[in-house]
Design brief:
The chain is an alpha/beta fold. It has one domain. It has 12 helices and 11 strands. The strands form 2 sheets. Strands 1, 2, 6, 7, 8, 9, 10 and 11 form an 8-stranded mixed β-sheet that branches. It has a 3-stranded antiparallel β-sheet with strand order 3-5-4. Strand 4 and strand 5 form a beta hairpin. The longest helix has 42 residues. The two termini are 30 Å apart. InterPro entries: DUF1501, TAT_signal.
């Protein structure tokens, strides 16, 4: 049932927000989270990794004979702590907490994937293409004002906006559109006094829907006061995922949020570690928080494009094309490397510089939606991802 914003408890919450003079500024997490309800018991979580994750570091193709030569200082290798997966690929050491998921068949990946976006390698355009689901024949991504997950939600009979929680300043175009989805976002870094926090706690106690989210936000506000912004960033990924898990364990079935910090132009070996740790923390928090519902959950981790195959002169990597997509959850069909690996020989690289895309990441998202919510293939190819050919089922889900 759609939550009524005119209910007494909701009016009290809104009045309190105005009285405190901060709207949703009481919720100072650093990234946006959105939830929506959908029919059935399956869950889907979409995590956007902003900044262009280097897939050749996250899931290192150490078995490719050209990998080490391309990255004389940045190669991620089992002898240096990477976790071997299948004799060809290895997880970055910062993703070590996810290794047990691989052993249980709850982690998988697809290398050499991309959206149809090519060549200009702009973060803004790339993220728009990723979140709108635009195809090459669908016009510029910026021309669309709705996200593919919102369009998918509009096709689910009985789906409604139960809770949409946007915490942070980042826009989640992924869930914007005609289908109902609500959100919270802070207007600034305004701190609340201790009396104001106590007042907010009392207001939230009258509204079960927002109580848990509010308590999480108050905790982060106190983290800011006690330890500063950096400490709050450290708890951000876990807090976002814990909030997602609580809502998905109730009436929500779809969640989306983003994690940043993946733009590693220089000093990548050090710069990439913390963002990868946060990704691992988020997935593990989802698993723990969802409990038995993890068995019915699919997590899609995607980024706007990959990075160059060669390391650059500042021991980093620049904007590329083919990237990696990570999957997690108990609903997966098993631990495996999906898709076709193109190789890293000079003649195999896209424009002589990037990992060659061999698959459309929208295809995996479409098959995940079909498997989790039973959406018809023709609607996925025409409405959710216009112009997409879903091809053969990759059997991502069990």
């Amino acid at each position: 049932m759609t939550e009524d914003l005119r209910s007494p408890s909701r009016r009290a919450l809104l009045r309190a927000g105005l009285a405190l003079g901060c709207s949703a500024a009481a919720f100072p997490l650093m990234s946006r989270v959105t939830f929506a309800s959908a029919p059935g018991e399956n869950r889907l979580v979409a995590i956007v990794l902003r900044g262009a994750l280097d897939g050749l570091a996250a899931v290192a193709p150490y078995g490719d004979p050209h990998y080490r030569a391309l990255r004389p200082t940045l190669a991620v290798l089992p002898e240096n702590g990477a976790i071997d997966l299948d004799g060809r690929f290895a997880l970055h050491p910062a993703l070590a907490p996810l290794a047990p998921l691989w052993r249980r068949g709850e982690l998988a990946f697809a290398h050499a994937v991309s959206t149809p976006y090519r060549d200009k390698r702009s973060h803004f355009d790339g993220q728009d293409a990723l979140e709108t689901g635009s195809g090459a024949a669908d016009g510029p991504a910026s021309a669309r004002r709705d996200g593919w997950l919102n369009r998918a939600l509009s096709l689910m009979p009985g789906a409604e906006a139960r809770t949409a929680v946007a915490v942070g300043r980042e826009r989640m175009l992924l869930l914007e559109g005609d289908a109902p989805a609500l959100g919270w976002a802070p207007d600034g870094d305004l701190r609340l006094s201790e009396p104001a926090l106590h007042l907010l706690e009392r207001v939230l106690a009258q509204d079960p829907l927002f109580a848990e989210a509010g308590r999480e936000a108050i905790m982060i506000d106190r983290e800011l006061d006690a330890g500063g912004m950096e400490r709050a960033r450290r708890v951000d990924a876990r807090a976002l995922a814990a909030l997602a898990a609580r809502m998905l364990s109730a009436e929500s079935r779809i969640a989306a949020f983003s994690l940043g910090g993946f733009d590693t132009h220089k000093g990548q070996a050090g710069a990439i570690r913390r963002p990868l740790e946060q990704l691992a923390e988020a997935i593990e928090a989802l698993r723990q928080g969802l409990g038995p519902n993890w068995a019915r959950t699919t997590v899609l981790c995607m980024t706007e494009f990959g990075r160059t195959a060669h390391e650059n002169g500042t021991r980093g990597t620049d904007h590329g094309t083919g990237g990696v997509m990570l999957f997690a959850g108990g609903a997966l069909s098993g631990a495996r490397a999906h898709g076709r690996w193109p190789g890293l020989a000079e003649g195999d690289l896209y424009q002589g510089r990037d990992l060659m895309p061999t698959d459309d990441l929208r295809r995996y998202a479409a098959w995940a939606l079909r498997g989790a919510f039973g959406l018809p293939r023709d609607a996925l190819e025409r409405t959710v991802f216009p112009g997409l050919d879903m091809g053969e089922d990759p059997r991502l889900l069990a």
